[in-house]
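Checklist before submission:
- one chain only
- standard amino acids only
- sequence pasted in full

Submission:
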Amino acid sequence: MARETERQPKAQEIIDRLVELRPWLRERQADAERQRRIPHESVERLDAAGVFGLTSPKRFGGADFTTREQYDVFRALGSGCGASAWMVWAAQGGNLWSCAFDDAVVAPVYEAPWTGNRTFAVGGTSRRMAGTARRVEGGWMIRGAWPFSTGSVHASHGYLAVFCDESDDSALGMVLVPKESLVALDDWDAMGMAATGSQTMATDGELFVPDERFSTPERLAERVAELGGRGEGPPRGGLARSLVTGAGVALGMADHAMEVFLGAIGKRGIPYSPYTKQAGAPVTHLTVGRAHTRIRAAGAVADAAVAFLDRCEAEEKDPSAHETLQLHADVACIWDACAAAVETLFAASGASAIAKRQPLQLIARNCRAGSLHAAHGIDTWTENIGRALCGVEAESSAGVLEQRA
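Returned file contents:
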């Protein structure tokens, strides 16, 4: 197969480029929110920095980074623009599902000239989050609407979950579809992560998908094992690894929030109090200490999860079901702690902080929105790990398709 000839930059090179790009990304966060998508100029600059190599299969020129390296890239990007980091992170789903199809089918997707993320993926956890497919000669007729298609604005192809039997919720597949075959409903208008462009993608009636562009979770598992044996597969950990690296997005936003808050406390006072400078007030010290401790604790949990997954890779073993569940609970804890820390800083910033031109209110909304994602829900995952510890069967921590893979 043909491969991209341009050298994939090392992780530290990407991080250095993102640090240089950070002021530019921060200045354009508000504009990105108004557009409800990452502006194309930002996508171009991120592409030039090499971040979209994180979401391409390594056999097609993508990055072969450790969990630590990928996590560090997402934390650096999240500190510049949380929505951009979320969009890049979410595009990893297409990278994984590219393993489920023959290389002859997938290669054209990655080998064509392109700027940005190549694919988006919508797995879904129910029929409401997926489409349907019926068997016809030579392939499948699919129909449906797929909400929260993060990355679809900038991608050329989508991986869409489909239920293949009206009476059997275990009959599931995934189809690879050119984005130009779908209709974008432009319905993404959210209080947080608005710039991710996570719109609903839908078919216009029924759409034919040939057999070679249809796959299953079982086929995904087989292909991951096959590619892994050749050293071309994704790293171990699957969805749990993706969530752990994505925790860097939350911590990056928390880093930015702390920087914003500390940059302002020497300039503003606290009205109706004896403190002409916020920096001198004991309540400010308590606020900063509380937020700092939450962020530091969340970072320590993330570091432990990252190190564990890199050990699994080095020892060529997969995390157990309980270890995977613990990783999901850890990620939920990280997102909740970061969102709470940012909200603590925002609440202590006074009424002027609510102005749309002020960055802290946007960081707070983006971080809390990320924490509300089903995969990050603190109550769900603390209950699930608690059930497991008590010897009560816990729900799987994966989506419908991933559960069966």
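Reviewer check: Confidence is low (pLDDT under 50) at residues 1-5.
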